[in-house]
Design goal:
By secondary structure, the protein is mainly alpha-helical. The chain contains 23 helices and four strands. The chain has a two-stranded antiparallel ribbon. The chain has a two-stranded antiparallel sheet with strand order 3-4. A hairpin with a 2-residue loop joins β3 and β4. The longest helix is centred in the middle third of the chain and has 31 residues. The model has no long low-confidence stretch (mean pLDDT about 90).
Length: about 500
Amino acid sequence: MKQRYAALTRDLDWTPSYVDEEKLFPYTRFEGIKVNDWAAWEDPFRLTVDSYYKYQAEKDKRLYAVIDSFAQGQGHLSLSDASYINAMKLFIQGVTPIEYAANRHFSFLARHYNGPGPRFAALCQSVDELRHTQTEAHTLSAYNKYYGGFHSWPKQFDRVWYLSVPKSFIEDAMASGPFEYLIAVSFSFEYLLTNLLFVPFMSGASFNGDVPTMTFGFSAQSDESRHMTLGLEAIKFLLEQDEANVPIIQKWIDKWFWRGYRLVSLIAAMLDYMLPKKVMSWKESFELYFEEQMLEGLFKDLEFYGIRPPADVAVAIAEKEHYSHQAYWTLYQYSYAAGFTTTIPDAEHLDWLSAQYPDTFDKYYRPLWEKAAKIEADGGRFFNTGLPQLCQVCQLPMLFTEVDDPEVVAVRDTVFEGERYHFCSDGCARIFADEPEKYVQAWLPVHQILQGSCGGPTLPEVLAWYGFQDGDSGEYVGSADQIDWQQWHSDEPVRS
């Protein structure tokens, strides 16, 4: 089997004779990474193409059987509550397009790595990412028949303000060199942070009766394991090739941990606020999947190569008490311009948050929600109708606070070529300072709205340009989803 595997992967490589190697592989030199022996690459996938497709086809048969059964049995009515659907709207709007972008770029890398080992690994991951895009879209398409907000997600990914956060992350990675992309996606995201994305989402699906999404999660889990293995192999391969690679890779780890960490702020909000039946808090998830597994495990091993934990990891640890609350409070304020609805936590939910965050929630965040509930009880709804200032790098609104003072918004700024740029943190400011020419080109949604590039100057024109339909945005209470949900579960006649 080992010989057959080698014959169908490594032995298909050849040494170019009539084209100079630098012209054949033009992208693997400009970053300063030195590779002395491409043959030292250990293949993380260890599958031939024919066995890979057979294996994936068996998983697809099981997944689509579950999807069909769920759809035919009106399974959407077995969810814990229609408000759970908002988490899945956020998933298909923000995660699925990243999968497709990763498919595109891994296929690009499958052509442009010098060595046959990483080329074949990139090919397999490219196919994995395309499969995930398709299965996620097919899994969630059943809900599109009954609930708003699932339509037009590729278009919304390119236009909607909060989706510029994942869009800027993946396009920043795609605009990097081939080795930086491996550290950005395969190591910093797939290995360090993917458990913070996939495990809570799929556990939340299981807890809330979403059988197709849970099944998709199981179907993708073996793929994600290979992707994590690719990330680990990539970093060890590069570190072992030449000592000169170490400082370059350390800089990339610092950068892409922070970029990925800011991206998962949307996951933090989902975990603590968007699941009717709770799985675990963001704080618990971060402690388990990052602090224990990565800081206490992986980085202890990487010390051998001279690699230390990411530069801003202490800030991320300090922010875990506040991260989800600040992110969801912002989404709540601006949900009139979002492709999902938001809710005020009820008394039971508030008590759960108090138990999960005993040192901070009652002091800083319960008063905000109690005030919002009073406004709603008096016949109103608290919305922030101003356009927020955005971070030039991560493109999130300025919503996070100083680590040592949760009542002061963190703002950093710098002047580059006569223009002032603003950042949400020291991490984002440092990333900008290292590559200012790249980040001055950022397409910031608020700036584009003010310049008239988003359909027009008024809110209805902007929302139409986003592609939103009636019922996609606003608050859950009184929304079309909630009204339909109640009538579907009522003995009363369904409205016409």
